[in-house]
Amino acid sequence: MGACDVYFTIGKQVTSRAELEGYLKKKQEQDREYNGHQEGYSGDFQTVDGVKTDFSKLFTSFNEALQHCLDNTEKWGDALAVHYHDVSVPTSKQELKLQERIKNIYSGLEQMRLVKKTSGFSKCSGCGSRLANTKLKRKVCPLCNGSLLTEREEKTFAKKKAQVQELEQKLVAIRKLNREKAIAKLGVKNVKTLIAGWAAC
After folding, report:
1. Which of 33, 80, 161, 182 is surrounded by the fewest CB atoms within 10 Å?
2. What digits encode the pLDDT tens for the residues 115-129?
3. Burial per residue of 62-80, b for 16 or more beta-carbon CB atoms within 10 angstroms, e otherwise
4. Is 63 helix (H, G, I), strand (E, B) or coil?
5. Backbone dihedral angles phi then psi of residue 68, each to the nearest 5 degrees
6. Rounded to whole angstroms, how far apart are CA atoms 11 and 120?
7. What is the CA radius of gyration of the chain?
8. pLDDT (average), residues 83-107
9. Per-domain residue ranges for the chain?
10. In the structure, what pLDDT confidence band is assigned to residue 184 with cuts at 50, 70 and 90?
């Protein structure tokens, strides 16, 4: 038998252990009613012993909070209760522009991989095979999976890939900053409680 992650959220910031245990008990009763008793392997909160807390950090997103819970719990043990910001941040104009640039570069990279010649041959630098262009759709050797790009094309391809990586890193940084600004503006108004862990299944 294995383990599967289980979780549920409470639409407010709960700090009382007694209240948390009450929410867990109610969830266990709901799971029992819905799934029935399956000899300890129901794959829901029936297999969770209790709930412990970690309020040392206020997580910036649901996904971050969930990952923390799963990393710090185990099957046949307690679930973990944490607090997190439930913030929906609209995509900024700056993000949209970066996304469009990244999309265009990826499109260009894909075009570079397409074989447009309808005659002649291409030689694979990897295995040395001489391949008819009429049989190729992409500039990849069907025999060794090596690249059929010329040396000049390889340099251009690598340069554009590096450019994409730089833009993607910039996009992540902008999203993080925008989220931090939204959280700071809302304060604790949007804080919710997550209870998560591992169930036997």
Report:
1. 33
2. 988 889 888 888 989
3. beebbebbbeebeeeebbb
4. helix
5. -60, -45
6. 66
7. 26
8. 93
9. 3-89+187-200
10. confident
